[in-house]
Amino acid sequence: MKKMAGKHWVIAGAVLGPLIVLPFALSKAQLHLTVIIEIHAILAVSLGLVVGFVGQLSLCHAGLYGIGAYTSALLTFAHWPFWLALPTAGAVSGIIGLLIGLPSLKTRGIYFSITTLSFGVLMAMVLNNWISLTEGPDGLSGIVSPEAISLFGWGTLSFKNPTSYYFLVGLFLLFTIWIIRRLLRSRVGRAFISVRDNETLAGSLGIDSMRYKLTAFTVAAVFAGFAGSLYAHYLRYICPKDFGFAESFDLLVMVVVGGAQTILGPIIGAMFILALPKFFGYEPVYGRVAFGIILIVVMIFMPQGIMGKFQKLLESSPGRTDGHP
Amino acid sequence: MAILEMEGVSKFFGGLAAVSHLSFSLSLPEEILGLIGPNGAGKTTVFNLITGQYRPSEGRIRFQGREIGGEKPHRIARGGIARTFQATSLFFEEAVLTNILISRHCRLKSGIWGALVIPPFTAEEERRALDKSMKILETVGLASKSNEYPHNLTNAEQRILMMAMALATDPSLVLLDEPSAGMRPHETLTVMNLIRKIKELGIGVILIEHDMKVVMNTCDRIVVLNFGNKIAEGTPEEIRANPSVIEAYLGRRTRVEG
After folding, report:
1. What is the reported pLDDT for A267?
2. Residue B21 located in a structural domain
3. pTM of the shown model
C-alpha cells in the first residue's frame, strides 16, 4: 500500500516537473495555445464525466461554458472582484445545467443529444440577441484581468502575463481532475457507471438513475462555468460564436478521441484537437483534410480513444495474467 | 400476514391482455412460490408489474401492506423487492466484487459530499460494504472469483452472480426469472440449494422456471398461468395432478377415430 503511494508520487513528479518548467521554455504564441488547451482540458474532462462515465451524449457543454464566461465578465463590469465572479460563474452555470438537465435527462439516447443540442443553440441565441445585456454578436470587450494576489511580503502575483495565467488554469485543471477522480471512486461513482452500463439493472437494484445523471450533468456544468470565467478573463474579449454548437461538437470530439471512459483521456484529446492543426497550418485544403483523415484513422483503430487504447495495451502486456483479450 | 398481495391485477398492451385479473398472495415471509406456464403465459409480465417496470392497467399490488403498483423500480427495490432477469443481466465492464458493491448501493448513505471530503463515516461505510460484499460472494460460492470480470465466468456462475446481486440489496422478497436457464444438471442442483438457502435466510421467493424438477422440488406452492389467466394454484402434488394444467402444457386429448 505504502509502496504504491510512493510510486504514484514518482509518476506525479515526473509529469508535473516538466509542466512547471514548460511555460518558461515556450514562445509567446506557444504559451497562449497551451493556456487555451488547459481551459479546453477542464471543459473536456468535465464533459467526459457525462459522456464517458454516465453515458449521456451531451451537446450543450459550450453553452454552459458561455454562460460562465458572460456571467463572470458581466459581474466584473459591475465591479465584482474576479475572485468572487469566478465561483459565481460556476454556480450560475451549475444552476442552468440543473434546469436543462431536468427535462433533457428524461429522454434517452439520441433524443437526449437532440434535446441538449437544442438547449445549446438556445443559449447561443440568447447571447447573440439579448443585446442590452450581452452586446450581441459584437461580444464583450475590455474584460479585466484577475486582480493581483499579494504574496505576503514577497511582492504581488499579477495575472496579466500568460505565465502566471498558465499556472492559475493549471491549478483549476488539477482541481477538476481531483474532484472527478474522488467522485468516481465513491459510491456515487459506482452509481454513475451502473447507469451507463445498464440502466434497467441499476434501477432494479435500487439506484435512482435520474438522480445520478442529473448529479453528473450539474457537476460538469459547474466546471464549464469555471472554464468560461477563466477564458473570459484571459482573452479579455468574448463573443457568442465562441460558445456555439461548433464548440460543443469540438469538445465532444476531444472527449471521444482522447478516451471517453478515462479521466485523463479528454486532456490528450484537447491537446490533439487544438495543437495538431497548427502542425498542418490552416491552409484550407490540405491542412484540414490531413487533420480530418487523422481523426478518422484514430477512430477506426482506437474506438476507445487514445488513452483507452493505451490502458488496454498496459493491461494486456506480459506479466499480467488476469488481463482479458 | 401476506407480504405480497396481487388483487385483480391486469396489464393490457393495446387490446392484448398479457395478464388479466390475476390474484395471488405470498403469505409466509419465507415461502417459495412457483410461477409456471407455457411460453407467453405472462409470467415475466407479472415480475415487471411487481417491480415497477410496468404500471398495472387495473388492480392492486400490495407489498407488506403498502400499495406499490406503478411505483418507480428503484423505489420498489429500496422497499425490499429484488429480482433477476431472464437474460443474464450484469455490469459486464466491472469486476465481480464491484457488481456486488454497486448492488449494495441502496443500503449505503454516503453522497457527493462524502465522496469529496471522505469523512470517517464514509471510509467506515465503504469498509463495511466491502466486507459484506465478500460475505455475500462466500454465501453463493463465488468468493474465489471476486476479481474476475463477468465474461470470464461460466453461464451458471453469471446467473448465480445475478442472484447474489439481488441478495446484496437486502431484500425481503426475491423474484427469480428462470434462474437455472441453460445450466447443466449439477449446476442446477447448486441453484436449487441456493434457492433453499435464500428461504432459510427468511426471504420470500417467487420463482419462474421451466425446469419442472426445480419447481417441484423447491416450491411450497405453485401458481399456473396460461394466456394471462391463473388456471390453477396449489401444492406441487396438486398441480401435477391438475387436468387443466396438463392440458395447457400438452394440449387437449383428442380421440382418434379409427
Report:
1. 94
2. yes
3. 0.89
